[in-house]
Amino acid sequence: KAAPTKRDYETLVELDKKHFLHPTSPIKQQQEDGPAFIFTEGNGIYLKDIHGQELIDGLSSLWNVNIGHGRKELGQVAAEQMSKLAFSSTFATFSHEPAIELAAKIAEITPGDLNTVFFTSGGSESNDTAFKLVRHYWKLKGQPEKKKIVSRRKSYHGVAMGATSATGLQPFRDFTTSLAPDFYYVESTPESFRAFIEAEGAETIAAYISEPIQGTGGVIMPPKDYFKEIKSICEENNILFIADEVITGFGRTGTYFGVEQFGIVPDIMSVAKGITSGYAALGGVIISEKIHQDLIDLSDGLFMHGYTYSGHPTACAVALKNIEIIENEGLIDNSKAMGEKMLEGFKRIQDKHEIVGEVRGLGLMGAIEIVEDKETGERFAEPLAPSIVAESLKRGLIHRGVIYEGADTLIFAPPLNINEEEVEKMIQIIDEAITAAK
Ligand code: PLP
């Protein structure tokens, strides 16, 4: 076969429909309409499509392009690493500098004694690894019956078998007929968790997992002091606490990691996305020194879990450069400052529109609730978020509407290098889109 030449737009659309099964997608609509956009370039907070239209990437693509698009330094680092050592394994006792340097850097920036990293290729692999790790840990400790994983309703932890099983959002679980056993969901109150422990027995529970702020569920903030209470319940009952920082890590909430906002240090942390700002596929699971030492001391000698791409040299080199940019350009402080501006803008929208209920945000994660009745918070029978999202798109802003499980919520998470003028532009578009969709 000859190498493909540059194709015309209509051909690309037909090939997309026929040959490309899109992840988490409206499968029938894709067959009817083809791709909504075929993107060709990115620069700062903007994406450009094949027709030259520029759109604000109001969700940092999938909450991951933290440093913004088009950073040539990352391309350069990747090219240099690929030319020098494109790949070598980290299985067994083989190693390489990018993985060592990145592991050390992550130990430095993560809170408390979270000092050892296991690398993965993304968030789902990170959470599956965390679930296997906690079960392995309790097995080594002589308590193999301690294997239940508890997560929260409305949580999202990814789509690998364990990650989906831990996901509290029903539509993701309904996709398949059977899931992994021993996964349970609790309401977001300490009482619900306590009642679960009471009913099941702490001796059967391996770990509790939660996002510091639930992202996919609709940027849902935890109740005040919730995590402090959950952490002490975990400690009282010998249950490990896994923080899923896949979205909230690397500056998203205005601190390096989301848990810092709530004054707790988890036993295990899952990361991905912002670790490379999406410039390469990488994730990780960071464990406490205590767990690491137990894994060594109690082991029969073999650690039987690893992905081919655990610690991929190019991805690690890209992550190191990405973290350097986050630090050198003060993007965590900018996330806090611009997050405050974004929330101020949401409040102006709330004051102006009858159909805007609660607005909320922390750093550059924010949400606007659409309601029929501002007083009672009652929602429309038919959610408005999809038409508002469509109106935003027409005006050059990409963001998401959440309508799972009765929600009618607009969610936002722009790149951390957004400036004040760009925040204002987003606010203006959201304001117009709500007016148009009413
Ligand atoms: N955990 C959280 C909190 C996420 O938001 C996501 C993805 O959105 C994942 C895990 C899964 O990550 P990935 O899509 O990289 O597998």
Automatic annotation (TrEMBL):
CDD domains: OAT_like. Keywords: Aminotransferase, Pyridoxal phosphate, Transferase. It holds the Pfam family Aminotran_3. It comes from the Bacteria. The keyword Acyltransferase does not apply. GO terms for molecular function: pyridoxal phosphate binding; transaminase activity. The keyword Zinc does not apply. Gene3D superfamilies: Aspartate Aminotransferase, domain 1 (3.90.1150.10), Type I PLP-dependent aspartate aminotransferase-like (Major domain) (3.40.640.10). InterPro entries: Aminotrans_3 (IPR005814), Aminotrans_3_PPA_site (IPR049704), PyrdxlP-dep_Trfase (IPR015424), PyrdxlP-dep_Trfase_major (IPR015421), PyrdxlP-dep_Trfase_small (IPR015422). Belongs to the class-III pyridoxal-phosphate-dependent aminotransferase family. This is Aspartate aminotransferase family protein.
